[in-house]
User: Fold this.
Amino acid sequence: MKKIGVLTSGGDSQGMNSAIRSVVRTGLANGFEMIGVKRGFKGLMEKDFTKLESKDVSDILYRGGTFLQSARSEAFKTEEGQLKAISNLQEEGIEHLVVIGGDGSYRGAAALNKRGIKTYGLPGTIDNDIPLTDYTIGFDTTLNVVMEAIGNLRDTMSSHERVSVIEVMGRNCGDIALQAGIASGVDAIMIPERAWNIEEISQALRSGFDRGKTHSIVIVAEGAGKADEIAPLIAEHSGLDTRATVLGHIQRGGTPTAFDRVFTSRMGYKAIELIQEGISGVAIGIEKNEITYHSFEEIFETKDEVNQRFYKLFQDLV
Ligand code: ATP
Assistant:
C-alpha cells in the first residue's frame, strides 16, 4: 500500500485541520496509507511520524490551529537536514508528502521535490501572501476575527469620540488590512504596498469629526507601520483623541469559517487526485472558485500583489 505523509509548517492558521482531515480521509478512501508528521519539517528530521486513521481526524474540522502542530526549523534549510528528512521518509516508505504552510514551507517542499520526494503544497497562512491563489487557508477566518474586533472597538471609541488605530497581521502583505477594512467600513487603511501620508489622513479624520462623526477607525498592516507609533502622530496632526490597539495573536485563532472549511476540503481532495494522476512538485490554489495548481517554480517567480481593484474599491467607498 502506498504511503502519503502530511505535515503543517510555519505559522498556524485556521482551516489547517480541515485541510489535514480532507487529505487523510480522501487518501484513505482511495486506498493509501496515511502518515501524519508532527511539528512540520522539524518532526520530519526527527521521524516524529504517526499513522492516521479516519477516527484520528474526527472532531478537528471546527478547530483552529493544527492538531499535527507546527514549527519552524533552521536545520531543515541545510543539506544535512534535508537528507536526514529524506532518509526518514524512505525508511518509512513514504513517497508523497503534502506540505500545508506558507512561502517558506513551499521552499522546503520544493527542495524535497528536487531531491526525489514527491511534494504538494497547500497555502496555509493567514497572510494571503501566496501568489496564484485568491485565498490562503485561514485568511477568511482572520478577516472575520478582525471585523468583530473592529466592531467592539467602534462601540467604545464612539462613546468617547476617539480615533482607533488598529494594527493587524499580514507580514509584508496588506490583504488582511485592506479586506478587513473594506468589510468594516474603516476611514483609512495603511498597507505596505501603497504610500500613505500622515498629514492627509489626519486632515481627513479631522474633517470627518467636524462633519459630526463620533469615531474613526484607521487600520494599519503590520508591514506598513506600528499602531503605537502612528496613533500619537495622528493625534498630533489632527488634534483628536487617539488610541492604538495591536490585535496580535487573537487573529490566528477561532473556529474556521464555512469558506475556509469548504475550500480546504476541496484542496485536500485535489492533492490526492494529483498523486493519482502522477503529478508532483506543485502548489494547490483557488482561482475564480476553481481549485488549480502550479509548479513551485511558477509560484516563486510570480509576485503576489494586493489586488489593485480592492484598493480602488476602498478609495471609492471611504
Ligand atoms: P508563514 O507565512 O505563516 O510564516 P511560512 O511557511 O512562510 O509560514 P517560514 O518560517 O518562512 O514560514 O517557513 C517554515 C519552514 O520552512 C522553515 O522553518 C524552514 O524549516 C522551511 N524553509 C523555509 N525556507 C526554506 C528554504 N529556502 N529552503 C528549505 N526550507 C525552508
Q: What stands out?
A: Residues 9-11, 41, 72-73, 76-77, 101-105, 107-108, 111, 125, 127 surround adenosine-5'-triphosphate (CB under 6 Å). The chain has two domains: 3-138+256-301, 140-253. The mean pLDDT is 96.
